[in-house]
From TrEMBL:
Gene3D superfamilies: 2.70.40.10. The keyword Cell wall biogenesis/degradation does not apply. One of its GO terms (molecular function) is dCTP deaminase activity. PANTHER family: DCTP DEAMINASE. Keywords: Nucleotide metabolism. GO terms for biological process: dUTP biosynthetic process. It comes from the Eukaryota. This is Deoxycytidine triphosphate deaminase, putative.
Amino acid sequence: MSVLSHDAILKAFQTKEIVITPLNENAVGPASVDLSLDNEFRIFKNKDCPMDIKESTNYREETDVITIKDGEYFEVQPHTTCLGITRETVTLNDIYNGTAQYKGIFEHNYL
């Protein structure tokens, strides 16, 4: 797997191989694009037992919606899984794939 450089990402935007809407060109880094979280999150309802994920699994039935106002926050409790939604929509050409990684304001180092 290779990683696109800053200039290669910008070229892929121009050729529409990668489309991000809305696009903030200041969010393009040396080899990545920063996305922002929207105000809606989904928390899984049943966290006491494993969930069998199938093609037919409906995440809307398995989660509760949490909506926060701009400037507010919510804490994800231990042993809780949540789904976040980006403000941006990302469309990739078939030759690309992408990964999402958490980039928090504070980083924790555990020994």
